[in-house]
Amino acid sequence: MRGRIILSHGSDSSPDATKVSALAALAESLGWDTQRPDYRHDDARGFAGSVAPRIARL
Questions:
Q1: Which of 35, 43, 45, 49 is deepest in the core (most CB within 10 A)?
Q2: DSSP string of the chain?
């Protein structure tokens, strides 16, 4: 395993979104471990309110 990549989805999306899933599949095929945190609960606070909780999850 080469390392870990944390892939964050957009504010109107989820960890299973098309772009994040495609990036995860590519990274995993190259030997990387991936993590896709689910920020949907934090995103309900709005853009400014979701920054601190997103950082805390990392």
A1: 43
A2: ---EEE----TT--TT-HHHHHHHHHHHHTT-EEE----HHHHTT-HHHHHHHHHHH-
